[in-house]
From TrEMBL:
It comes from Panacibacter microcysteis. GO terms for molecular function: metal ion binding; metalloendopeptidase activity. This is Zinc metalloprotease. CDD domains: cpPDZ_EcRseP-like (cd23081), S2P-M50_PDZ_RseP-like (cd06163). The lineage of its organism: Bacteria, Pseudomonadati, Bacteroidota, Chitinophagia, Chitinophagales. GO terms for biological process: proteolysis. Belongs to the peptidase M50B family. The chain crosses the membrane at residues 12-31, 111-136, 428-450. It is a multi-pass membrane protein. One of its GO terms (cellular component) is membrane.
Amino acid sequence: MTLLAINWGDAGIQALQFILSFSIIVTLHELGHFLTARWFKCRVEKFYLFFNPWFSLWKKKIGETEYGLGWVPFGGYVKISGMIDESMDKEQMKLPPQPYEFRAKPAWQRLIIMLAGIIVNLILGFLIYAMMLWHWGEEYIPTNKMTYGIAADSLSQSIGLRSGDKIIAADGEYVDKFEKIRMNVLLNSTKSLTVDRNGEKVNITIPEDFSSKLIHFKDVGYIGLRMPFLGIDSLASDTSAAAKAGIKANDKVLSVNGKPVTYFDEFRSVVIANKKKPVNMVLLRGADTVQVTVNIPGSGMIGIANKINEKVLDSLFEVKKIDYSFGESIPAAFRKSYETLESYWLQLKLIFGGKVNLNESLGSVFSIGKMYSTTWDWFTFWERTAFFSLVLALMNLLPIPGLDGGHALFTLIEMISGRKPSDKFMEYAQMVGMVLLLGLMAYALGLDIFRMFK
């Protein structure tokens, strides 16, 4: 991939959504620190969205606090007087503590100030989920209503799954939401699947290393909902392989290289197997049969989409639709928030447990930005905002110096032991934590840049 291959229009929309989403998350996180600090009568010297090395895009002093907008969109910060943080204001720490300083406050107050940002992010994620469930409700196709079974790619087939299999149970239990099965297999928490294959029960044992293979190949769609190939909805562009071959929207593919295709996954399998080769396709165009030759590019993508929309889905599958009242959305949002946190925690355990390669799972702002939609979709935007708000809360809770969790850990030790760590120790701990975090950010950024040109 090169910079010329990037669709800059799509990338721009993703970047705008990413910046807006994280502006909301970070501002409210820092507001949690700010409000609790002011509540306990600490002086807050700065409140910034984004970082501002050397200069700020905008700043204004109101009372004792300077409010500003930095130019590096990687986060934000509040500078609380007397707190050893990323500002590393050593001169202030040499002076005797003042009543308005963070270090002069009781340990329980300092603990609340440090955890406030995490608590706000947890509340934000939960509230967004609650409002989404109340407004949009929930829609999904139950596992036992997947009429055509699953679409299994080559990696899934390597462990014994087959396209058309209908999943009956995961670890012996029926799971209503198919997406949960897919995620649990990816997170290595599901060990076996029971499928119905042409009326016969087949047990599939999932190998220990399967999740690491999925992450290595970035194969998040290793099993999916099997869909009939109803026809070509649209072409990606006038320069796509399909367009060059003369394929048109509304054509229906009857066969590829003489092999009939009924399902979209069958079509994709044949196309991918013929990368960098020409293939013969027979199309139905209105009442006529048309033959075309398509040169399959190395990416295996010829630039067409299956003719599937919401109305078609409703006619092909029994879609489960749940509408929530405001009261019902509250417990549903709690469940969704818990499942999100549990899922991400399992991902962290996989990474730090050495079951997956850190180089393959680590990403910077570029990887995060790509998780947003290439069209402005408010549902996806709010869903991603809720997800990342909860993820930020969990990450900040990790007991690493430089993060809120590291500060909280030292304060808890102080409360239990009755001994406060020295300012010098806290300075060194903060320096080590910041070096680790900045090094990790730089490494992740380097990996993403490498992937762009790979």
